[in-house]
C-alpha cells in the first residue's frame, strides 16, 4: 500500500467503519478487516459538513481507473451487508473498497489484490457524495 498523501474520512464514517472492523475481525474476513483498519489509521478525520466534495466517503459513487490497464469502473462504496456486485455496489471490506475509501479525485494508491498482485487505482471522479449532496448519515 503506497500513497501520495493521507486519506480523508468523516467522523461518522470512521465510527461506523470501526464497528464493521470489530464485527468482521474474526473469521474469513479478518484479513480484509485488518487491511481496512490499517488504512483508516492513516486518515485525517473531518466532520461530514467539512469533507471536500471530491473525497470518496461511504455510499459515494466513484469512477476509478486501473493505471496498468486503463480500465475505468464506476461503483458505489457501501457497507458489507449492502454489497451487490451485479449492481456495482462494492463493499468497503473488498480489496477495491478498502483502497477507495478516503481518496480524492486525482489521487492514486497501489493496493494488494487477491492472488498476490498489486493494482494502482486512480480516482477519476466522484459523481455522487452523500455529504456534498446534503444527504448526511443519520
UniProtKB/TrEMBL annotation:
It comes from Archangium gephyra. GO terms for molecular function: DNA binding; kinase activity; RNA polymerase binding. It comes from the Bacteria. The lineage of its organism: Bacteria, Pseudomonadati, Myxococcota, Myxococcia, Myxococcales. This is Regulator of nucleoside diphosphate kinase. Residues 5-45 form the Regulator of nucleoside diphosphate kinase N-terminal domain. Residues 52-127 form the Transcription elongation factor GreA/GreB C-terminal domain. InterPro entries: GreA/GreB_C_sf, Rnk_N, Tscrpt_elong_fac_GreA/B_C, Tscrpt_elong_fac_GreA/B_fam. Gene3D superfamilies: 1.10.286.20, Transcription elongation factor, GreA/GreB, C-terminal domain.
Amino acid at each position: 500500500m503506497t500513497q501520495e498523501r493521507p486519506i480523508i474520512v468523516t467522523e461518522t464514517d470512521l465510527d461506523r467503519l470501526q464497528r464493521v472492523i470489530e464485527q468482521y475481525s474474526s473469521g474469513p474476513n479478518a484479513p480484509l478487516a485488518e487491511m481496512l483498519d490499517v488504512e483508516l489509521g492513516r486518515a485525517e478525520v473531518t466532520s461530514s459538513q467539512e469533507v471536500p466534495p471530491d473525497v470518496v466517503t461511504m455510499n459515494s459513487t466513484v469512477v476509478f481507473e486501473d493505471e496498468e490497464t486503463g480500465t475505468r469502473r464506476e461503483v458505489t462504496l457501501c457497507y458489507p451487508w449492502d454489497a451487490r456486485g451485479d449492481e456495482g455496489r462494492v463493499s468497503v471490506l473488498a480489496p477495491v473498497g478498502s483502497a477507495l475509501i478516503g481518496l480524492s479525485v486525482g489521487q492514486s494508491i497501489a493496493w494488494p489484490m487477491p492472488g498476490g498482485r498489486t493494482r494502482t487505482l486512480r480516482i477519476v471522479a466522484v459523481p455522487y457524495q452523500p455529504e456534498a449532496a446534503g444527504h448526511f448519515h443519520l
